Amino acid sequence: MCGIVGIVGHSPVAPLIVDALKRLEYRGYDSAGVATIEHGKLGRRRAEGKLINLERRLKDEPLDGMIGIGHTRWATHGVPNETNAHPHFSDGVAIVHNGIIENFAELRDELIRDSYTFSSQTDTEVVAHLVARELARGLKPVEAAHQALKRLEGAFALAIMFKGDEDLIVGARNGPPLAVGHGDGEMFLGSDAIALAPFTNSITYLEDGDWAVVRRNEVAIFDMDGNKVDRKRQQSLSTSFMVDKGNRRHFMEKEIHEQPEVISHTLAHYVDFVGGVSKPLDLPFDFAKIDRLAISACGTAYLAGLISKYWFERYARLPVDIDVASEFRYREMPLSKTDAAFFISQSGETADTLASLRYCRKAGMKIGAVVNVRESTMARESDVILPTLAGPEIGVASTKAFTCQLSVLASLAVRAGVARGTISPEQETTLVRQLSEAPRYANQVLKLDGQIEKVARDLSHYKNVLYLGRDTNFPLAMEGALKLKEISYIHAEGYAAGELKHGPIALIDENMPVIVIAPHDRIFEKTVSNMQEVAARGGKIILITDSKGAAHATVKTMETIVLPDVPEIITPIIYALPIQMLAYFTAVFMGTDVDQPRNLAKSVTVE
Questions:
Q1: Which residues form the SIS domain (predicted)?
Q2: Is 2 a catalytic site residue?
Q3: CA 154 to chain centroid
């Protein structure tokens, strides 16, 4: 969500901070700001909207100073405008914040009684006033920050500066990530290592409850009781180059077309294409000895987990419980040390998913993290990292990370089946060979972009869309609806096709496009019956199927998109591509911000 950068350097830092913030744009934001200290005085520039607006402001009104903090804000408390943008000031204190201060209303009332006034609607300004009040009571800056931090409840990552001290930034973490970067006579703070990659690859990740005193030549880290703690310093794998769109219009388009390559890379990590076997994995548990697998995730990652439930239960006869992470901890499900749990997150920082991981760890379960960022908090706190090798994904709406998650989970389901004796060696070879075909089929589907763009042009004229699917195509229908609503802002819902008569059919008329995901499989005829029900009520059917399905549909469609005939295990991976392209082209016709849709963030680091 919000992005934080801090630099204690030896040259003017404002342009460096802006460049670092650009590396955090993928997280989502609606305003930005920078503050520096020069000759002991605080200066600040803020702007609503994109970073280019802040750059223009800095060009007209430059900020000097060799120490500074910067921020990209995703609004939680207060509307997106310049007044609510960070940094916030209070009597010589400057602060930037990612997270939610849950007791801010109580603290705000207390501060108002102490004659502090508020210029913004944010919870962040409360923290600035708390620190300023401790300074007014006679505390030195570091201790003032510490005492203020102890009053906070909720999730926060913070960077704090003090006028008159050009060699001090205090950073703190309780939930959202924050890293310290070590340089030569300069130090850095950042929401993740990507932001700091141009400056240093020597990184220390703060843990929950840590706060750091950052100076040019030293960093000291403490816990909330004020005890000094040691945190491991490591070399980051993040690269300093900026990811660009190449010759594509949007990152999302580029990332859709990268899928054949990244699916191949990911599968090669888990299966031996030549030998036709799944690769041994250093798992902290034995698939043959667990009674149940729990999976938890949010958004698109949750839907990847939901698809994998079909695979684990079908191929490995392993019962799977799958939960939206925001609900996982609250339904009081029985947990056992003999069970294992997988947590899925592109960023590895998703707050609800991370909280669920910690909940299971506390219960003694063995943890696997399916993540795209190996240095993430979830990766560090899991027993085993199960990486998706998608590479950086910039578009807020996940595409290649989703199909790589599916590739990992399908491979693991095969491995589980082998371990549990539910898949014979011959079946394993067949399934691995089928998985190895996924990149080739994905390339074929991408060549249908012209037809899909034409369908999207028609789809862009409607206000509501229904997606239907059965088996693994049911969660894929939900994913199609999610993609469309995320980036085109068209209302869409995904349903199991068999549920049509249990409510959604009431919506069907000539103004309702119905996108049906239906390869010709053992339950295809049941889906045809649902399509006939839609057609009888004037609904506009867009059928995504294979050649045999197109021949046997026996129903008039608005459009039929014919995909290659693919094996069952890779159907969700291959059929994900046309629903992504359909959402993408529809959003382009709608004129929306495809890569950074309104109100959404790439990395959701608060609950």
A1: 283-422, 455-597
A2: yes
A3: 20
